[in-house]
Amino acid sequence: xxxxxxxxxxxxxxxxxxxxxxxxxxxxxxxxxxxxxxxxxxxxxxxxxxxxxxxxxxxxxxxxxxxxxxxxxxxxxxxxxxxxxxxxxxxxxxxxxxxxxxxxxxxxxxxxxxxxxxxxxxxxxxxxxxxxxxxxxxxxxxxxxxxxxxxxxxxxxxxxxxxxxxxxxxxxxxxxxxxxxxxxxxxxxxxxxxxx
Length: 196
What we know:
6 helices, endonuclease, HNH endonuclease
């Protein structure tokens, strides 16, 4: 996180990182770590690319058209610290670039793609945006994605145990952040300052 310097318009002093700033990342990891992944067949991949207006060997970001670096979950698999029930499978994955994937996060793709979010296609003036939206809408209708009730499938004991482990890690992050603040203050007082 950058702090804008009042001394020079071309300089942003990097701020201190917060350990607790990773709570949502860790929560996501805890839930995606148990999310089922189904490997698609070559035929499914070809069909998916065809719906998105692409061919094998020419796979680009479905959102903006830049070079594909990964496949993104079209429908989020984690939202509000809970699994949505969607899993990792071809019916819920589209080729994406890192910028779009990071910018979209767990937001609904229709809402995000036309938003002013950083790196959202509309905000980057993607020329063929309406065509991309039409293809994504067709893709969304292509197949019914699998949706699981994690708690019901796992049973109360396994679900509560997994979520208890998550809470223990989050509590430890909070404790570590309190200690880091003490350390930051001690180090700041010991740091050399100009003019001294």
